[in-house]
Known about the structure:
The structure is a single chain. Helix content is 39%, strand content 19%. The protein is of the alpha+beta class. It has 3 domains: 5-75 and 160-236 and 321-388, 3-Layer(bba) Sandwich (FAD/NAD(P)-binding domain), CATH 3.50.50.60; 101-156 and 396-491, no CATH class; 244-318. The strands form 5 sheets. It has a 7-stranded mixed β-sheet. Helix 1 (12-26) packs parallel to helix 8. It starts with a strand and ends in a 5-residue tail after the last helix. The mean pLDDT is 94.
Amino acid sequence: MNINKIAIIGGGTAGWLAANHLGKVLCKQAGVSITLIESPDIPPIGVGEGTVPDIKKTLASFGISETDFIRQCDVTFKQSIKFVNWMDKETHGKGNFYHHLFDVPSREDSEVLTAHWLAENSDAPFAQQVSAQHQVCEQGKAPKGITTPEYQGELAYAYHLNAAKFAHLLADNAQTKYGVKHHLTHVSRVNLADDGSIRSLVTSEDDDLEFDFYIDCSGFESLLISKAMNVPFIDLSDKLLVNRALVVQVPTYEGADIPPYTLATAHKAGWIWDIALPTRRGVGFVYSSNHMTDEEAETKLDYYLGGKDPKLVYKKLPMKIGYREKFWHKNCVALGLAQGFLEPLEATSILLTDFSASFLANRFPVKKSELAVLEKRFNYAMGYAWERVIDFVKLHYCLSDRHDSHFWNENRDLSTIPNSLQEKLKLWESSVPITDDFFSQFEVFYLENFLFVLYGMKFKTKPLALLPEVRESALVGLRKREEVNNYLQSKLPKHRELLDKINRYGLQSV
Length: 510
């Protein structure tokens, strides 16, 4: 029996990303239809404003113009995450920081420059040693020029964006290009078949809607995979300790400088994201309610923003940290927040949603007889990906030498650190990480991502004595990097200058 009728439950970024991925693959198959069902009275959370570089490939594959995307979604460029005060202020100074950059050297250059940095016990920031993007970020420069074609750049980049506007752009693209149907209604009941699969959805208008396959993008509510199908939730609050966020939108004045990175500033019980769009900043105070009261969190956020402003409205978001025991069950797949949530650090929510939706679309079941084998494949791959993301997020916390609160001390307790991460850190005490330490195509973060965090946070790896040829190769690499620094500083415009030109003239189409 063929799978022809597909329903996506929930809109927002997750639902419309799924609609585009599936639509692109399935729209030309005879008899196949995709319907996105979205409640008209449930607003999206709309705080997922950071992305990673893979999103460029996704948007280009959907045929979305980068110029249109930038203009319609209040986009700014993101070249890094700048981590401030994640290390002890007494030891490393108040305002200590490091960059997790997006532009990396070749694997060969990376290994040589890392070995040289460790051997020299250099005081220079690790990111500055290996990439010209460090200086570009610190100078507030853009990653490309106005004549650079769409989705290309002098340096690697991702985006900051208005999440609500992004969902609208994706919705329009899915409907106009791929024929995805949009149905505004509330799902009031889910009917299951005798075998536990989903038979139909009952709406608030008492319509009984039957489909062959269902995709749960209903957010934290997890209407299908959790409430109807009772797939258990794996709680990770003993590993990742933050569980709440206060979010606010702060207006900025016209012409203000726009940092080309996400700012992530640590505090005594968590951290603060600060994302600059053209006319506002999206700020989120992430914290552990087990280590800080809600009242103290509000006071701390007031202080960060320069004092209490009665015009600003804080929105409190509880964060249920963990993921589903299964992401695919019977004829239902969960994506986005219905699949799980770790925390906003490193923009993992949109990253995992995009990754999962693409993986699903590229091997979507044609017949119901394929469901069992594809379910097993999907759950294995996504489970591995989630576990590796947990390792990477936890890395930021357990490497910190802050000791000003129980929160940071507890994050270094071995009971809160996954065994898989403990094993890696033990290995990397005596040897520099190499590509072979990341052996699966389902790694979401790779060697260079780990290097930026490990050595940005002063992780101690026993340096090896450098062979003369390795030292010479490193010195050649450093000279080349300095040449690239000078070239980029002379060529690249300031961030806001480029955005203003894009909005006025547009980028060159590919």
